[in-house]
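I am still getting used to backbone structure tokens and would like to learn alongside you. Label the sequence line and the structure token line clearly, so we can match residues to local backbone shapes. Would you write everything just below, so we can both look at the same thing?
***
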Amino acid sequence: CTFCLCLETLVYDPIACWIWNKAGWNNLMGAIDYAGGTPVHISSGTAALAIAIYLGKRSGYGTESLKYQPHNTTYVVLGTVFLWFGWFGFNGGSTLSANLRAAHACIDYCLGLVAITPAAGYVGAPAALVFGVVAGTLCNFATQLKFLLRYDECLDVFACHGVGGIVGNLLTGLFAQASIAGLNAPPQARILGGWLDHSYVKLAHQLAESTAGFAYSFVVTTLILWIFHFLPFLRLRTNEEAEIVGIDENDMGEFAYDFSTDPERGHDNPPLSASATAIH
């Protein structure tokens, strides 16, 4: 709880002020972010990367005991549906009113989720399809970064949220349209579009916002972790025994999935479906 409070106060709040406050430097520069591409996704994804690098690898990392296990495909689909539905309130509600612009936001978010967050109220549905295809492809490739760079981040928070937020911000600079943004905005709150509206500098604004958010979140999160390191009662890393047996068993006395290892055959018992997808 203490870490979350520090992260929200020292990382999220300043970045949100940059982009959503009328006097924020990102806002004055001309960057646009409808529902939190930088404050929500880039900041949290980068914080996860900083935490993974600072805390280091788990005990047993790279061994058979910590290999990625197959997952129940039905649960993956069901969880995606729940997440998808919840995003209606997240992005659609960011317009702070019930109107045509909110309807556009709800349609668009379905086609891009994380990547569409900064653009949901600024782009049309055809552009949202591009967001979904491009971000889905790049984020999928980004899940391999942890193997390439050898950091231990089993939930792929950076690959999904960090990379997804950056991609969404940059695509916003290309596809944002003043006609969509102005559906319910007063004249003084209307924005310049992106490349589709021949505002070519918008991409540079979006790149500056993304870079600043990434750098600020990484540095401040690392500083918070460094300070916590000197406070024994606030250290975030669990003990080695808990890492070996698993957090589920150590903290709750049970497994989320009843995986067991057969020492004679050297694989999980009972056998798992070959069609199951891997946890990332």
